[in-house]
Amino acid sequence: MNKRAALLLATVSAASAFGLCGCMGSSGGGTTTSSASAAAPSSSSSAASSSSEVETLKTSTVGGQTIVVDGDGKTVYFYTVDHAGETKSACTGGCATLWPAVTSASAPTLQGVTGKIGSITTADGKQQVTVNGMPIYYYAKDTSPGQVNGQGVAGVWYVLGADGSMIQAPINAGSPSMSGTNGY
């Protein structure tokens, strides 16, 4: 194996390890916004997950569960290492690459979502959307609307219910292209 192939393999292996381990990070700093109307301009933290900010959060039924997705149908997740009301995400570094923050220039329009919307400031100054005080994320391995590959990853990543609750039950999206409910 040449050096370039070995480096590529090492990079892919490291990225996969982040997904399996849950990507533990640290907490602290930032600003919490508790009202749905206050959020500053920002853009998505990862081009792999979204090329623009979320404008709408809505509900969708996947595998018999009503979950929260963005306006394009892309699933959003909670990270159980985060805690409601904290002012900074616990998902940093490589974790934030695999689990990019859902950001918004202003409070997203809600369609069927009853959880309380707010925001916190990310390390790079963007406004990460929160639901019931918990930051929300995309999963880079969800490449199409309706995928839930991040559900249950490492026992710390879960989809959101319409009321902002965490859904921990396995979700089978019923698509033959799915790699399983745990995304590995």
Give the secondary structure arrangement, pairings included.
Blueprint: H1 3-21, E1 32-33, E2 56-62, E3 65-70, E4 77-79, H2 94-98, E5 109-111, E6 117-121, E7 127-131, E8 134-135, E9 157-160, E10 166-167
Parallel strand pairs: 2-5
Antiparallel strand pairs: 1-6, 2-3, 4-9, 6-7, 7-8, 9-10
Keywords: Signal
Region (Disordered): 34-53
Signal peptide: 1-17
Short structural description:
The protein is of the alpha+beta class and 184 residues long. It has helices at residues 3-21, 94-98; strands spanning 32-33, 56-62, 65-70, 77-79, 109-111, 117-121, 127-131, 134-135, 157-160, 166-167.
Q: What characteristics describe this protein?
A:
single chain, 184 residues, alpha+beta, four-stranded antiparallel beta sheet, three-stranded mixed beta sheet, 2 helices, 10 strands, disordered N terminus, disordered C terminus
